[in-house]
Write a structure and sequence with these properties.
5-stranded mixed beta sheet; Immunoglobulin-like; mainly beta; 4 domains; elongated; about 500 residues
Length: about 500
């Protein structure tokens, strides 16, 4: 095991604890630019397990910021307040937002004040210090545009907020709102009124759209803000609701036969209250055991929720299946369709292969049952099996002559053996004809030795015979058989006519 793995995990968890604990308040200070502004701002630091902190700056106006103290020690479990001083110049050349950060860095235990940071965990938090330089002339910045979600039949509130970031007053800023359905059809045009807005001032434009009998679902709103030949356009989306949950997305990966299908279903509420006990049911059409369901969950007002459904494909065959996916809520249902692919070998019985396999098995059985017993172990002498093997040769084919028998025996038993050979001859009816000893010999391991003997000519008559050679060694013996025929003695052609 690599000892570094638990060590790195411990360091990661330590860093996570640091980052979750260190805090600063407020998180942002936002002021308009004032020439030669000299002032101070305070902030509070909440440390955790590292009591030593240092203060630095970065950003657009860092050169105009200083600290009465640049480092401090804060007791664990408490907090402390600090300040930073700001001295702005006479002018800033670029209009707009100037972003500067007050950085508080926390160092681990054992860090000495005034020392440079060494090896160890350190984290930082930042306070955003924003200074806004007015744009020359008239400039409106939209701070908010929203249309509230409402139940069907109620009025949907519309609100647009703007601030004058220019250095001149705007005498007449006006708004117009347009409402569209999901297909893009214009449903209503609503005036939002007009306002005069001075430099640095905020203005809010409000209106309402009666939803009437429009069905639940998503709707879209456009806003046009016009002032002194300038036009700004914005868009947003909102819901007209009812006790309705819609399925918004379904995903399912391909599976192998017998695998587990995983359906991920996203659902969204169009109701202004929490809906408890929502669950998903899947029905795989034309499949065995087709249904499965998810756990029940609560969907918050206007909220979204994801569900997982697992279906065991069991013995269903490969193919593409249609699936009904149904969300159950408040005694109601809403169904969407999808497909599931089972990819891989079929679970159907392959009869041609089964029949072929059975035929082969029968052939092998018959060969084993009737052919194999005829093949004696010693007859396979050409194969160097473990043990003793041999070959029998009969050297004579004519009646009236002596018959010579030769047994070539090979020893692969792993040790030398003392062996003895016996040759026997039987007529076709099984009657013994002759029995001749082949003598005794020692066969070394891995060696081959020949035993030979002759059957007297007086016993050789025309006919068919079976010769056997029995090799005895220790308490074991092996038998080799060989059939042979003896032809009748033929006279020379010239003697046939005497």
């Amino acid at each position: 095991m690599d000892f570094r793995t638990p060590f790195l995990l411990l360091v990661f968890l330590s860093l996570l604890q640091f980052s979750a604990a260190l805090g600063i308040s407020p998180g942002r200070i936002d002021i308009p630019f004032q020439p030669n502004l000299t002032t101070s701002f305070s902030f509070r630091v909440i440390p955790h397990s590292a009591p030593f902190v240092k203060f630095t700056t970065r950003g657009d106006l860092a050169q105009y910021i200083s600290f009465p103290v640049t480092q401090a020690t804060i007791p664990i479990g408490s907090s402390d307040r600090f300040t930073f001083d700001v001295r702005l110049p006479q002018a800033l050349s670029l209009p707009g937002l100037h972003d500067t950060r007050i950085v508080v860095t926390e160092y681990p235990r054992g860090f000495q004040a005034g020392a440079e940071a060494g090896v160890g965990a350190k984290v930082a938090v930042e306070l955003q210090f924003w200074v806004r330089v007015p744009y020359p002339g008239k400039y409106l910045e939209v701070t908010k545009f929203m249309v509230g979600n409402v139940p069907s039949g109620k009025n949907a509130p519309i609100e647009l907020g703007a601030i004058n970031r220019g250095n001149e007053s705007i005498a007449n800023a006006s708004t117009v709102f347009e409402i569209f359905d999901a297909s893009g059809a214009l449903l209503a045009t609503i005036p939002g009124g007009w306002r005069g807005i001075g430099p640095g001032e905020n203005a809010v434009f409000e209106a309402a759209w009666p939803t009437g009998e429009n069905p639940p679902g998503y709707y879209y709103a456009n806003a046009t803000l016009a002032y002194d030949r300038a036009v700004k356009q914005l868009s947003t989306r909102f819901k007209v609701g009812a006790e309705l949950v819609k399925i918004t997305n379904i995903s399912a990966d391909d599976i192998a036969p017998g695998g587990i299908a995983r359906f991920k279903v996203d659902a969204e509420s169009f109701w202004a209250e929490d809906i408890p006990g929502v669950f998903i049911e899947t029905n795989v059409l034309n499949a065995g055991d087709p249904t499965a369901r998810s756990e029940s969950k609560t969907i918050e007002a206007w909220g979204k929720q994801s569900f997982l459904v697992f279906w065991d494909s069991k013995k269903n065959n490969p193919g593409t299946y249609d699936v009904d996916v149904t969300v159950h809520f408040l005694g109601k249902t809403q169904t969407e369709k999808t497909t599931l692919r089972i990819v891989g070998p079929s679970n159907e019985i392959p009869w041609p292969l089964v029949i072929g396999a059975l035929s082969l098995a029968i052939i092998l059985y018959l060969a084993y049952r009737f052919l194999l017993p005829r093949l004696r172990p010693l007859a396979a002498g050409k194969k160097k099996k473990r043990g003793v093997s041999g070959e029998l040769d009969v050297r004579c084919t004519r009646a009236g002559e002596a018959v010579e028998f030769v047994l070539r025996a090979s020893n692969n038993s792993g040790e030398p053996i003392d062996s003895e050979a016996l040759f026997e001859v039987f007529a076709e009816d099984g009657t013994g004809v002759a029995s001749v000893s082949g003598g005794k010999k020692k066969i070394d391991d891995g060696g081959t030795t020949e035993f030979s003997a002759k059957m007297p000519a007086s016993k050789t008559k025309a006919g068919n015979y079976l010769a056997t050679a029995t090799l005895s060694y220790g308490e074991k013996e092996g038998v080799v058989e060989r059939k042979f025929s003896l032809r009748a003695e033929e006279k020379p052609p010239w003697e046939k006519y005497r």
